[in-house]
Design brief:
The complex is a heterodimer of chains A (281) and B (439).
Chain A (H helix, E strand, L loop, with lengths): L1 H15 L28 H13 L34 H8 L2 E5 L6 E5 L13 H7 L11 H4 L3 H10 L15 E3 L21 E3 L20 H16 L3 H29 L6
Antiparallel strand pairs in A: 1-2, 3-4
Helix pairs in contact in A: 2-7, 6-7
Chain B lengths: L11 H7 L4 H10 L2 E3 L8 H22 L7 H10 L4 H29 L7 H23 L4 H14 L6 H9 L6 H30 L17 E3 H26 L29 H9 L3 H21 L11 H22 L14 E2 L2 E2 L3 H26 L5 E2 L3 H5 L10 E2 L6
Antiparallel strand pairs in B: 1-2, 3-4, 5-6
The chains are: A mainly alpha (281), B mainly alpha (439).
Chain lengths: 281, 439
């Protein structure tokens, strides 16, 4: 009875959580796999380190990550975690990564706004002072905050990878406004810019971000060849880590909780069987 | 609470307390010696699951409230702060968010069990109505809670749902303004939703107390639907059901833990990881899964006010169900015809849920359609939800009353013990009797 019930509940979830059809179109994200998938999946630390470099050298020119502090890079589960420095504020790698970046502060003697090198306790600085400045510098488009981007889009890191590596030259018949780029993975409705056959409107949308990645754009410290695919994979992994830095802790904790609950259920079942053995029911 | 108390104070202190506040006697009669039918199956364990879930939601909720900031500019980041920087905040937050879904999953199983075994029928009407009130309070609490993270779906869901109240003639707009604390969903709305979200669970806990009180007067129904006749039909609640329920609860916790630890975002919407932006409406505004069937009924009706009334009628119908059911037999075990309609009813609820998740104009079978009927394509979700909604109401208002009068139920056992000793199919002639004599 119970098993049937859960099967039924599971069926209900599957039916309800089914894909929601959109009026906009986009291509399915590429089916690539990550080290952090599955119940035992962990982040590939070197991949996340490379991803941070991509973010720092490319993405951070336009995209903020307001939930992130430099100390996060060195905390447990982070890409630069070092067991020798349980307090990430002491981690020399994190210190030097922070030191490379200038942040705004107030001079407590004069009250003036000053710039100083960041410390691990500082948040990642935002590239623009406010939304208007961001739009003014990006042809009216607003580069979204990337802190939880890997959770804020259907498809998560797969979507990010596909979007970043999927830019295409617009097919003949598609005329995009100036400052817009064609990406089949970006959800959109291109029928307004399409001059071809009405039934063959290309999938995808016009995005305000120019193709950000290029071969050799980032030089990886571990010697990995710097292809667009590599850069896109690594930065997607970094963004997934940033979206949930406690993911490894969650899965680890879950493993213990599951073992505990399974044993506990087994004991309770045995008690139940023993207790009820003389009751006809 | 029902029947004679068998509690005997053992120590001097217990005797002293018993003559002043018989609280130990109360606890003893309620959860230790309470006579419970011995044939309850696992579907009866969800009452215990629900009590636990209410407890978990209240405890995790109180912890979250210590760190959460109910301010339109800070709420989203404060939830992220809980996940990132509060010790085990990720655990508490995921337990609370997924706990709501598990709470509703359990309450739906509890309700459907009730419908199948006819537990709402006399003498348990008040028990059933109290349950309906709990369910209503749960929906309100769930909705308020979903607004608090102040993501895109939170905000625009709040806009859609609060706008429904505006459809009520004359007073609707004033109530909406009062609820908003202004002329749009904004910071004051968030503040009052937070306040109400903190209040309602304690109201639920109060009604749960009444619910359990009302349960303990007539006692549990059971899978046969036959009244308890003698002491041989029952076992004391403890240890028999504390252990059996304990096992079922533990299995339920495994499912809950699977969501919390391995797919904490599976039941949520990606758009709620985007900060609320009043100027940018998400393409599809959908409520949480547990409200989808009602959302589908709402959108099945072209007129806004009628849609709102339809949605509330869908819940209101539940309150009068005990008086719509004309069947003398409680359990559908002995009502083969009713059983068929019952399973179609479950299917209709699931179909309504699917319809609620889709845009009304979307096609059920892609690339088909083309047959326009009245205001929409026949193959669209809006027509599917109309069929589902029609069946939902027909089940309660037409099928249930008529079926009780026209169907021929199977023979009902004499007592709870008789089908235990001999399966109904192979029961001796003396063990069965005409069902219409039974209550």
């Amino acid at each position: 009875m119970l098993r049937k019930g859960f099967a039924f509940a599971a069926l209900g979830f599957v039916l309800i959580a089914g894909p929601v059809l959109a009026a906009t179109t986009e291509e399915e994200p590429a089916d690539i796999h990550w080290s952090f998938e599955g119940p035992f999946g962990k982040f590939d630390k070197e991949q996340v380190q490379r991803g941070y470099k991509v973010y720092r050298e490319v993405c951070s020119a336009c995209h903020a990550m307001e939930q992130m502090s430099f100390r996060n890079l060195g905390q447990k589960g982070g890409p630069f975690y070092d067991p020798k420095y349980p307090n990430p504020n002491n981690n020399p790698v994190v210190k030097s990564l922070a030191h490379d970046i200038q942040v705004k502060d107030i001079d407590t003697d004069t009250g003036d706004v000053i710039s100083r090198p960041a410390t691990p306790a500082d948040k990642f600085p935002a590239p623009f002072a406010n939304e208007y400045a961001a739009r003014a510098s990006n042809g009216g488009s607003l580069p979204p905050d990337l802190s939880v981007m890997a959770k804020a889009r259907e498809g998560g890191p797969r979507y990010i990878y596909s979007l970043l590596s999927g830019f295409k030259t617009p097919p003949a018949g598609l005329t995009l406004p100036a400052g817009k780029y064609y990406d089949p993975y970006f959800p959109g409705d291109l029928s307004g810019s399409w001059h071809g056959a009405a039934k063959a409107v290309p999938e995808g949308g016009a995005i305000g971000m120019p193709p950000p990645l290029a071969p050799g754009k980032v030089t990886f410290d571990d010697g990995k060849p710097s292809t667009v695919k590599e850069e896109a994979t690594d930065v997607a992994a970094f963004l997934m880590w940033a979206a949930e830095p406690k993911m490894e802790e969650r899965k680890q904790f879950g493993f213990g909780a599951m073992i505990y609950l399974l044993i506990f259920s087994g004991l309770l079942y045995a008690s139940y069987k023993r207790l009820w053995r003389n009751v006809e029911h | 609470m029902s029947g004679h108390s068998t509690y005997e104070p053992k120590s001097g202190f217990e005797r002293w307390l018993d003559s002043r506040l018989p609280i130990i006697r109360f606890a003893n009669d309620t959860i230790i010696t309470f006579p419970t039918p011995k044939n309850l199956n696992y579907w009866w364990t969800f009452g215990g699951v629900l009590s636990l879930m209410l407890g978990i939601q209240i405890v995790t909720g109180i912890i979250l409230a210590m760190h959460y900031v109910p301010n339109a500019d800070l709420a989203f980041n404060s939830v992220e702060h809980i996940r990132r920087d509060v010790n085990y905040g990720w655990l508490v937050q995921f337990m609370h968010a997924n706990g709501a879904s598990m709470f509703f999953l359990a309450v739906y199983i509890h309700i459907f069990r009730n419908l199948y075994y006819g537990s709402y029928k006399a003498p348990r009407e008040v028990l059933w109505i109290l349950g309906c009130i709990i369910y209503l309070l749960m929906m309100a609490t769930g909705f308020f809670g979903y607004v608090l993270p102040w993501g895109q779906m939170s905000f625009h869901g709040a806009v859609v749902i609060t706008n429904l109240i505006g459809a009520i003639p004359v007073v609707g707009p004033s109530i909406t303004t009062l609820l908003w604390g202004g002329f749009a969903v904004d910071n004051p709305t968030l503040n009052r939703f937070f306040s109400l979200h903190y209040l309602l669970p304690f109201m639920i806990a109060g009604v749960v107390g009444l619910h359990i009180w009302a349960l303990h007067v007539p006692g549990n129904n059971n899978p046969t639907g036959v009244n308890v006749k003698s002491e041989t039909d029952t076992v004391p609640f403890h240890p028999y059901y504390t252990v059996k329920d304990g096992f079922a609860i533990s299995v339920f916790l495994i499912v809950y833990a699977a969501f919390v630890f391995y797919m904490p975002d599976a039941l949520g919407d990606a758009a709620n990881y985007i900060k609320a932006n009043p100027l940018q409406t998400p393409q599809h505004i959908v409520p949480e899964w547990y409200l989808l069937p009602f959302y589908a009924i709402l959108r099945a009706v072209p007129n806004k006010l009628m849609g709102v009334l339809g949605m509330f009628a869908a819940i209101g119908t539940l309150f009068v169900l005990p008086w719509l059911d004309t069947s003398k037999v409680r359990s559908m075990r002995y009502r083969p015809t009713a059983r068929i309609y019952y399973f179609i009813f479950i299917l209709a609820c699931l179909v309504l849920g699917v319809c609620g998740a889709h845009a009304p104009d979307d096609l059920v079978i892609p690339h088909s359609g083309g047959v326009q009927f009245l205001d929409a394509d026949l193959d669209s979700y809006v027509w599917l939800s109309r069929i589902g909604a029609l069946y939902y109401f027909a089940y309660f208002w037409v099928i249930t009353p008529l079926l009780g009068l026209t169907e021929t139920p199977l023979p009902v056992p004499e007592s709870i013990s008789s089908p235990v000793l001999s399966h109904p199919a192979s029961a001796p002639a003396g063990a069965v009797a005409s069902p219409e004599k039974r209550g």
